[in-house]
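On clarity, I found the account of how folds are encoded harder to follow than it need be. What matters is that the chain and its backbone geometry are given together, residue for residue. I therefore recommend that a typical entry be quoted early in the introduction. An entry of this sort, consisting of the sequence and the corresponding backbone structure tokens, reads as follows:
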Amino acid sequence: MGRSAAFFDLDKTVIAKSSALAFGRPFYRDGLITRRDVVKSAYAQLMFRLGGTDEQTMAKTRDYLATLCKGWKVEQVRQIVSETLHELINPYVYAEAAALIEEHQAAGRDVVLVSASGEEMVRPIGELLGVTDVIATRMAVEDGRYSGRVEFYAAGPSKVEAVSELAKLRDYDLADSYAYSDSVSDRPLLECVGHPTVVNPDRALRKLASENSWPVLEFRHPIPLGRRLRERPAVPVAAAALGVGVGVAIGIAWYGRHRRTRSRVNTASS
């Protein structure tokens, strides 16, 4: 038997928002996109999330992404992501997801972020979480600018192809590996491992999970990484399977600290 790994979808699984749309404001501010692009991007992602397993939908989303990014300077994109990462992403990392990632790492498993968002966005987010391995969409580059062609679109079956290639390279035993996602578009990813788990699932994925008796987790507490490290909420992998219970436990712990802090402040002021 080979080693095992844990594959995490990113949006609404590890972070409580869309990683691509999160950078819409600085992209708009720096002139990379227009207001119309912002609306169209949000709509395109919604359509993908609702029907992402459909080959035509994925192709349309991929082509729109290529057209939108054509001509952008790669270094400008990387700089925007670097400068705004802690403001736009850090506060939205689910505490439950971050703790679960740590538990897998502590168990000796490699953790891999698998996202349809661009690699220039996903890799820095991974570094924020202590994850060095990512599978993400790659755009073709010519003379330092995106050419308008997608080299690899990390969505649907393509995710599984990349995961399978990495498994062969690293000698992962996929039957003993884990995968986490919130969207039915990741059905192929979830079905390619022995331990699939759905997180904050959409309606179609919740139904699929019920039919296959897959565990369902509810992550509800996005907490900035610095604060989470100070408070160190314990969320072991086994306990995470309880889903809502874990969220409630973290919420109670945070609320208790908040109350104690306020009490000390009120006492001091009186």
Q: What stands out?
A: The chain has a mean pLDDT of 82. The CA atoms of residues 28 and 221 lie 28 Å apart. The first strand starts at residue 5 and ends at 8.
